[in-house]
Amino acid sequence: MKQFVVIGLGRFGVSVATELYRMGHEVLAIDRSVERVDEIADSVTHAVCADATDEAELGSLGLRNFDVAVVSIGSDLQASILVTTLCKDLGVKFVLTKAKSALHAKVLQRVGADKVVFPEWDMGIRTAYNLVSTNILDYIELSPDYSLVEISVPRQWVGETMKDLNLRVRYGINVMAIRHVSGDISVAPQGTDVLEADDVLVAIGSNASINRLEDITGR
Questions:
Q1: 13: number of Cβ within 10 Å
Q2: 82 with 166, same domain?
Q3: Contacts of 191 (CB under 8 A, 6+ apart)
Q4: Considering only CA atoms, which of 16, 11, 35, 12 is closest in space to residue 27?
Q5: 120-151, pLDDT tens digit by residue?
Q6: 127 with 213, same domain?
Q7: What mean pLDDT comes out for the span 172-196?
Q8: Among 101, 117, 133, which residue terminates a domain?
Q9: Could you tell me if 149 and 95 lie in one domain?
Q10: Is 203's pLDDT higher than 70?
Q11: 96 & 130 share domain
Q12: pLDDT tens-digit profile of 32-53?
């Protein structure tokens, strides 16, 4: 069990805090809004109304004992940067901060954020792919050039073996797992594995390869 502190209880912060608690971890949720703290109090280990930009107030909560801080402050960029800095200064081992823009992310990285995320941006990309793609069920951008995708097996692949399809050579994607329609999951599938209708492939590849794959299989 890890100890997490989530600072900022907007939609993203609440989602992260409640899911971490559901997974069995200890979660301290912090926000300056009494109403937001009261709303989440029963769904986390502890919920505290505090001004996270106040170093003394934040330090009194024992942040150095936490494994991870999630800074999910919304539109107040100055507060986001300050709280990220304070978390590192107070000894938090790993700080993840929500960013609103590329410039915001660059500043956060310079002040010590270990990881920066763009939840609205990422969701926008995933939604766009879901709207225009026939076979791509889900899409997670790993970097500006590579992504992880879930691909519904196209009808032209049904009955084919992984060896016959040779997806790495033909399409430039690496299949990490197959989620079969039966519910079974084949991790690191073998060349002899046969694809069935409604199977789902979990694959990684360059964005160019994924787009090319969609153009071919979506016809």
A1: 23
A2: no
A3: 161, 162, 163
A4: 16
A5: 766 555 555 554 455 666 667 777 788 888 88
A6: yes
A7: 86
A8: 117
A9: no
A10: yes
A11: no
A12: 999 999 999 999 999 999 999 9
106 and 182 inside one domain: no
Q: What's the number of domains the chain is made of? A: 2
Domain boundary, last residue among 100, 117, 134: 117
DSSP 135-188: SEEEEEESSSSEEEEEEEPPGGGTT-BHHHH-HHHHH-EEEEEEE-TTS-EEES
- CATH number, residue 99: 3.40.50.720
Q: Length of the chain, please?
A: 219
26 and 42 both lie in a single domain:
yes
Q: In sequence order, which residues have a C-beta less than 8 Å from that of residue 94 and are 6 or more positions away? A: 67, 68, 69, 114, 115
72 contacts 6 by C-beta, under 8 angstroms: yes
In DSSP notation, 16-84 reads HHHHHHHTT-EEEEEES-HHHHHHHGGGSSEEEE--TT-HHHHHTTTGGG-SEEEE---S-HHHHHHHH
Residue pLDDT, tens place only, 83-105 = 999 999 999 999 999 998 888 88
Residue pointed to by tokens 């823009």: 101
* Whole-model pTM over 0.85: no
Instruction: Let me know the angle formed at the C-alpha of 28 by 52 and 34, rounded to the nearest 5 degrees.
Output: 60
Tokens representing residue 171 in the block: 């399409």
Q: Tell me which residue range forms the domain holding 20.
A: 3-117
